[in-house]
C-alpha cells in the first residue's frame, strides 16, 4: 500500500510539473457583472436620430474603474431603458453590481437620476463622456467622470470582454530619461494618457500628475478626465502621467523611502522628491513631441503630492513652466522637513511663473495652519501666486478636485490670462 501510494504521488507530481500554469484567481476589479441577456429593441422610425444614437452597448470607465452601460430601448419622447454595471472599486469602496433602470435623453444628453445623477454625452461618433454628480447628502456636488465606446451587446452578454479595456484619452507609455531596465536593454516606461487639443492645434501642453498612494491603490491608474477636459476647454493639450512604480508604470516607487533619525522621526524626503522630478522631466520631454503640442513652456498641475511637484519644479526650472495649478499640494504633512521646499520654490520661481494654489480648510491631511505656513514661506521668499483656501468643501477637503463647482470659476479666471490660442 505504501509503495502504491508513493507511485500515485510521484505520478501526480509529474503531471503537475507538466501541466500549463493557469491563474487560479482574477483581479476582482476586472469583473463587471451583466445579465445573461439583454432586451434589445431596434429604435422605431419615429425616434429622432439624436435619441436613437444612444441605443446599444457602451463599455469603458467611471472614476477610472470599469463600467458598462447598455441602452436596451429608446422612445420618441426620450425615455430609455438601460442596464448599468460596474466593477469593484477598492478606492471608492464600491462593490461590483448591475441593475436595470430608466433614463431620459434630452438636448443630446442621456441622464439617469438618483443618489447620483449620471449624464452621458457624445464626445465623438461612437464615444460617450460621462459625468456623475452626487445629488444630495454630505458629498453633494462630488463629480466623477469617465468615457465609454460602443460595443457589441450580444458578445458582452455571452461573457466576452476586451483584452484592452477602453480608457479615457489615448493611453500610451513614455520612456524614462534616466531609468533603465536591469539588463540595460531599454528605458523604463511610464504610463500616461494623452488628450489632444480640442480645437485646431498646435496648443500649449498641460501636464497632470497624481498624489501619493498606499497599498493596493499603488496599482491604480489615473486618467484625471474631469481636469483634462477642463484644460482642453481652455485651449491646452493634456498629458496625464503616472510616476514610477504606480499603475502600469515600471520601476519601484521610492517616494516613501523617507530619511529617518535614530528614533524614527522624519528628517529627509529629498530622495523621493528627486525621483519624482526625474519622472516629471521625462513626461515633459516626451509630451513636447506629441502631435498638436506647441513648443515652449508647459502648464503643470497635480493633486496632493502632484501639486507639490508642480510647484517644486517651477522653482527649479522657471523658464520651462508657464504656470502652475496646485490642487491641495503637499509632500508630507510635517512642516519642519517640507516647509523649506516651499521657500525654495518661492525663491526660484519669484515672479516668473503664475501660480494658483487651491486648498480647503477641512483637509484631513494638511491642516489649515500648515497650509498657511506653506503659503507664507513661499511668499516670504519672493514667490507670487493666487492663494485660495476654500471653506465648506463637503467631506474631506483633500478631495477638493472632485468638486469642480467650487474651484472651476476661480481656475477659469486664472487661465484666462494665458494666451493659449496664439498661433
Automatic annotation (TrEMBL):
SUPFAM superfamilies: alpha/beta-Hydrolases (SSF53474). The keyword rRNA processing does not apply. InterPro entries: AB_hydrolase_fold (IPR029058), FrsA_esterase (IPR050261), Hydrolase_4 (IPR022742). Gene3D superfamilies: alpha/beta hydrolase. Pfam families: Hydrolase_4 (PF12146). Residues 221-327 form the Serine aminopeptidase S33 domain. This is Serine aminopeptidase S33 domain-containing protein.
Amino acid at each position: 500500500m505504501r509503495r502504491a501510494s508513493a507511485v500515485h504521488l510521484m505520478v501526480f507530481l509529474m503531471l503537475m510539473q507538466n501541466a500549463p500554469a493557469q491563474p487560479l484567481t482574477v483581479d476582482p476589479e476586472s469583473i463587471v457583472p451583466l445579465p445573461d441577456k439583454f432586451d434589445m429593441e431596434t429604435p422605431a422610425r419615429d425616434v429622432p436620430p439624436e435619441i436613437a444614437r444612444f441605443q446599444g452597448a457602451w463599455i469603458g470607465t467611471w472614476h477610472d474603474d470599469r463600467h458598462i452601460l447598455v441602452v436596451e430601448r429608446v422612445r420618441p419622447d426620450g425615455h430609455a431603458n438601460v442596464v448599468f454595471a460596474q466593477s469593484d472599486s477598492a478606492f471608492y469602496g464600491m462593490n461590483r453590481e448591475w441593475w436595470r433602470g430608466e433614463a431620459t435623453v434630452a438636448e443630446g444628453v442621456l441622464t439617469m437620476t438618483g443618489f447620483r445623477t449620471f449624464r452621458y454625452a457624445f464626445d465623438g461618433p461612437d464615444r460617450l463622456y460621462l459625468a456623475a454628480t452626487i445629488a444630495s447628502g454630505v458629498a453633494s456636488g462630488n463629480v466623477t467622470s469617465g468615457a465609454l465606446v460602443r460595443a457589441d451587446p450580444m458578445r458582452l452578454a455571452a461573457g466576452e470582454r476586451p483584452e484592452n479595456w477602453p480608457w479615457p484619452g489615448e493611453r500610451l507609455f513614455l520612456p524614462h530619461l534616466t531609468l533603465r531596465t536591469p539588463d540595460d536593454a531599454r528605458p523604463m516606461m511610464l504610463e500616461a494618457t494623452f488628450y489632444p487639443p480640442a480645437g485646431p492645434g498646435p496648443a500649449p501642453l498641460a501636464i497632470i500628475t497624481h498624489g501619493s498612494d498606499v497599498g493596493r491603490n499603488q496599482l491604480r491608474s489615473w486618467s484625471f478626465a474631469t481636469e483634462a477636459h477642463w484644460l482642453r476647454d481652455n485651449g491646452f493639450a493634456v498629458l496625464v502621467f503616472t510616476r514610477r512604480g504606480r499603475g502600469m508604470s515600471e520601476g519601484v516607487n521610492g517616494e516613501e523611502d523617507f530619511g529617518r533619525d535614530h528614533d524614527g522621526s522624519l528628517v529627509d524626503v529629498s530622495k523621493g522628491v528627486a525621483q519624482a522630478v526625474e519622472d516629471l522631466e521625462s513626461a515633459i520631454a516626451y509630451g513636447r513631441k506629441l502631435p498638436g503640442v506647441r513648443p515652449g513652456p508647459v502648464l503643470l498641475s497635480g493633486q496632493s503630492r502632484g501639486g507639490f511637484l508642480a510647484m517644486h519644479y517651477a522653482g527649479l526650472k522657471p523658464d520651462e513652466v508657464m504656470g502652475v495649478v496646485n490642487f491641495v499640494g503637499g509632500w508630507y504633512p510635517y512642516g519642519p522637513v517640507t516647509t523649506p521646499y516651499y521657500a525654495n520654490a518661492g525663491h526660484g520661481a519669484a515672479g516668473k511663473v503664475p501660480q494658483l494654489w487651491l486648498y480647503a480648510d477641512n483637509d484631513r491631511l494638511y491642516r489649515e495652519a500648515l497650509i498657511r505656513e506653506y503659503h507664507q514661506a513661499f511668499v516670504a521668499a519672493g514667490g507670487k501666486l493666487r492663494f485660495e483656501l476654500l471653506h465648506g468643501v463637503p467631506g474631506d477637503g483633500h478631495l477638493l478636485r472632485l468638486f469642480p463647482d467650487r474651484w472651476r470659476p476661480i481656475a477659469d479666471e486664472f487661465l484666462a490670462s494665458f494666451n493659449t490660442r496664439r498661433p
